[in-house]
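[job 0417] fold request received: alpha-glucosidase
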Amino acid sequence: MPGEESSPRKPAEDRSDEKFSRPRWRFALIAACTVVVALLVIIVPTAVVLTRTDRLHPVCPAMDERERVDCHPEGKATRDRCEARGCCWSPPAAQGPPSCFYPTNHGYELDGEVAKTATGYRARLRRLKSPPTPYSDDVGTLEVLVEMQEEHRLHVKILDPSSARYEVPEAALRVPRPGEAVDNPLYDVTFTHRPFSIKVTRKSTGATIFDTSVGKLTFSDQFLSVSTRLASPNLYGLGEHVHRRYRHDLNWKTWPIFSRGASPKGNFDNLYGHHPFYMCLEDSDGNANGVFLLNSNAMEVTLQPPVTLVKSQIRDDILDMERVAMPTVTYRVIGGVLDFYMFLGPSPENVVQQYTEMIGRSIMPAYWGLGFQLSRWNYTNIDKLRTVVQRTRDTGIPFDVQYGDIDYMEDTKDFTYDAELYQGLPDLVQNLHDHGQKYIIILDPAIGNTNRRDGSPYLPYESGLQADVFVKNADGVTDLVGEVWPGTTVFPDFTKPDTVQWWGDHCESFHNVIPYDGLWIDMNEPKTFKNGSLTGCGDDMWNYPPYVPAIKGKLMYERTLCMDTLQYWGRHYDVHSLYGHSMAIATRSAMSRVFPDKRGIIITRANFVGTGQYSGHWLGDNKSAWEDMEWSITGMLEFGLFGIPYIGADICGFLLDTTEQLCQRWMQLGAFYPYSRNHNHNDFIDQDPAVFSQTMIDSSRDVMMTRYTLLPYLYTLFYHAHVAGTTVVRPLLHEFPTDSNTWDVDRQFLWGSGLLISPVLTPVGDLYACLKGGEMKTFGVKYLHVAVVVVADDDVVAAVDVHVEDGAQILLTLTFVSELQQDFAAGTEDENLVPDGDDDASQTVNSDAFCSFLCLFSPCHIDDTTSICLKSSRMERRNILSQYQYLEQIVRWIVLKSHDVHLLYHLQDTTTVDAYFPDTRWYYYFSGQEVEGQYRGQTVTLDAPLDKINVHVRGGVILPTQQPANTTVYSRRNPMGLLVAMDDSSAASGTLFWDDGESIDSVERRDYVLVNFNASSTELLCEVVNVPLGGPTAGHWAALRYDTVSVYGLALGAETPTVRAGPVNGPLQTVAASRVQYDQDNQILLLTGLNDMDLKITSSLRVTWGYR
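[job 0417] inference complete; emitting structure tokens
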């Protein structure tokens, strides 16, 4: 009994041997066992279920379809294929989202805890036991390294700790070495344990910088994938492609990145450069961030539309919640490691500065490289080249550089020239030099392996064999042989130090033959005419990897080298996109030998992250089309992000015949390319400006004179890019990031912060084509009616009607319309686009399906109507009919090519352009007047006659200028000027950088002039902060004076003010009244003829104005 057990009168007893015999212990034991069994019943089956779920069944919760990450990106997914790889299957309700997508239990989990390190964090991951990926062997254990390198920069690297994998070598790109973690970063880093994800946010706002929870990590030998959320839909960058707009379309677009020698066509093709870097403008507060994946392997980046999520943040002890639109970016890479760098800005310009600080700042171009340049593939012979040079000089159009394309060579072999067709070329080059002009030659990487024309050995090949400098086949012994312009060729391995020496030897020796001034390196993706090699490529994991990104052709070695070939830096599979970059490095080394003290100019087609340290870039083999001119602006803006500011497109277009109107407008735009070159193709008409009408010549001369006037400002912008990493050509959003109207402005651009360019980019008017010819025997018909409708951005923009009758004159009419009220049915390129003869039938191809116009044949008497229509549809898939010569091609496809086609142009030139003006003061550059009316924060329609481009100066800036001349050699000797544009506070500022224009290390040696300008309502101050070594003497490049000062927006009285000028600390001289003009109505002060007042650019000066 209990009473007995607890009785105090009985002595205590040892009852230990009885404890299980007592009824209460038996009860306790039974109860405990019951609990244990119950727990086992619950826990064990649950654990088993979890384990089995982890291994066999994907967890597929309901989610917004826009958050799905494709688990079957190679296409042709089926339920069986999808579920076999452990993924979720559910066909989407809308077009775009994948049917097969990753489950929530895919990826990796933390193995242990996240460790704090001196540089940041370290974590070990183990793969969840989901089915293996179908692409290659999965890596079971990963290591995550997080380095908090700077307040604004974070490094996150995911790698295989047990096996060394290819990484971009330091010789290609030197990145910062880890140091101590910073104490007060702008970012927070958090981790999720299972499945593993990492999230980076901005401390001040909570904005998402990087968040991998949306798509689960995949890491196998030849397939790496990770997805991240963006803070907003404002995404810019990634390249190289033709992006029709600067701000990305996020509607399920996939962009491959892998260097490819393909003409830019406005589709999704990967092009010459490899730039896995983007910038995201986070929200209306103007904050921006950048994300860079350091990886040179082939990859693709998929952009998904935003999903509205809730963002929470504590501000002033209050929980602040708001809904934000967060898109997704997915990377799929087929080699290397996942090596991310993030840049916190906070401004867009800060992001570019921080990115270029890491990858290397852009080279300072030679001053003459900012002049106008002229080129053509195949001038035919030396006489034609002389004619072009002379007729361009005769126009008075400024002209600094003439090019030699591959036609100057003997049989297109590097380091030779055709002594028959180009006899006297060295003399012509000397003539260019005598006139203050330069000569740039092209060099391709492919080296012919046959003898010279006269049977003598081709020394570059023979010496290359001896030095063993060529790319090796997979056996590591024999040289890969392909085919390019010279015929059979081998390919230098520019990653090898011996090759750099060999290349420099031949560049140096050839300069003794042709005294060139710069080098243009082309075809260096590398591009070949045979896939892989003359003998094909091996059937292995490199040439045929288990996953191929969405690259052009879907064949890794299409028009390039076999992927299993070997180079000094690694297998071509890994270093392919570094080929052009390594050639640029080798060519810069060669130039330093040819010109030990001068910069010269290098322009490259293929490029990689950091190529801007060595070379500029042009946008490749564009065509003479209005849309190509338009898209060149986006291309320039993107390469500003990529740290290659010396950028431009072929003015007037490379492919196809241009028109005078197009070329005239393009010369106006091209005058504001940092790299300004007119270049065209062998098969098409001359387009140097001298071949056109006097009106065109005058317009081109005027706009190029404007460029040369502004070259001191442009050169100063390049100095800032070189030392601080700022952009040269700049999108409006970089200067006005809080103005949402600027976020997608890409038909205008800025030079620096101060000059706004608003070009005309579209034509208007009607075109008539008269065809004369006999019976159309090609198709055996006597009557044909064709209607073509052009679709761009889902709006019908043009309609064409063609009536063809046997032996009769026919009329083709093109009418541009903003919208055509017809109800078109959707179609695709693979469908039969030809209706069955119904006159009223209409059918179109949705622009999302890549076709851009509709073919209707009615009545239809052509046997192979489908192929004809599809042939037409494979023309450029854009607003193709805005370029008039395409009509001729359409007609020539319909009629015999031999028929006589006459195009009659009845065009009304576009005489206006719409321009957006952010909320600040803006002045017309040419007149000094402020823009009329209520223009701030508005889009304004401006007059734009054919001979004019609209250029505006921003209030608050001071632009250095110089009297122009026909070459920079002579313009650099002319007096300087200043253009002062007042802001709302009657203040302005600016900078002038000036050196000898070509010394290779003038910035490092501080052998330059640097002047800071500041203006107020009463005075202008010129503060010299650096003077050249030894100071300027007579005839010195710095012995220049200011001759003009223009002040826009200066409110003074009705009378002409008194102006005084002189040294800051000395007596001021009164400027003669005859040299002072003041326009009270437009508030413009002009000072002219100041040169004899000895206002030197190397002296700190003061200019005052007023009435005392």
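[job 0417] notes: The first helix runs from residue 2 to 5. The first strand starts at residue 88 and ends at 89.
[job 0417] exit 0
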